[in-house]
Specification:
The chain has 155 residues and is of the alpha+beta class. 30% of the residues lie in helices and 17% in strands. The chain is built from four helices and six strands; from the N terminus they run H-H-E-E-H-E-E-E-H-E. A three-stranded antiparallel beta sheet has the order 1-5-3, covered by helices on one side. A three-stranded antiparallel beta sheet has the order 4-2-6.
Length: 155
Amino acid sequence: LGEKCSSVSAARTMARKALQSGAALEKFREMCKSQHATVDVTQNQKALKVSTHTAELIAWKSGGISKMDTQSIGLLVASDMGGGRMKTTAQIDYGVGVIFHAKVGSTVKKGDSLATIYYNPARKPSIETLLANLQKAYQLTGGRVSSPKLIKKVI
């Protein structure tokens, strides 16, 4: 809680007020400015060009999501899709990414959408390879799974 609030409930109330008043958005703008962001998408959302090319990762069987290899997913987006850079000279494609529709602990049915990939068809690898690699990052079990504890230990 960073000693700002005495309880989680008080922290949630503080966060809700910051969002409703616009203070959180203003702080976000300050952070963007401090990082020399050239486009303020908080005032002009059309400035953020999201790819119009999408593909769905579909659940290949029914069951629970017991694991997601988030490191592999991050490398897929950053390296393979161009959403990040491995060298300081590399260009970033801000229009690519992944939206997750199910998380660890979710129960899905065969055919449900697990994630949507926003991709650039001009880049390699192909969307088929991207989907195959994203699927490898998921582990589906045959039955229900429990959600992991988000907070392991308070110290």
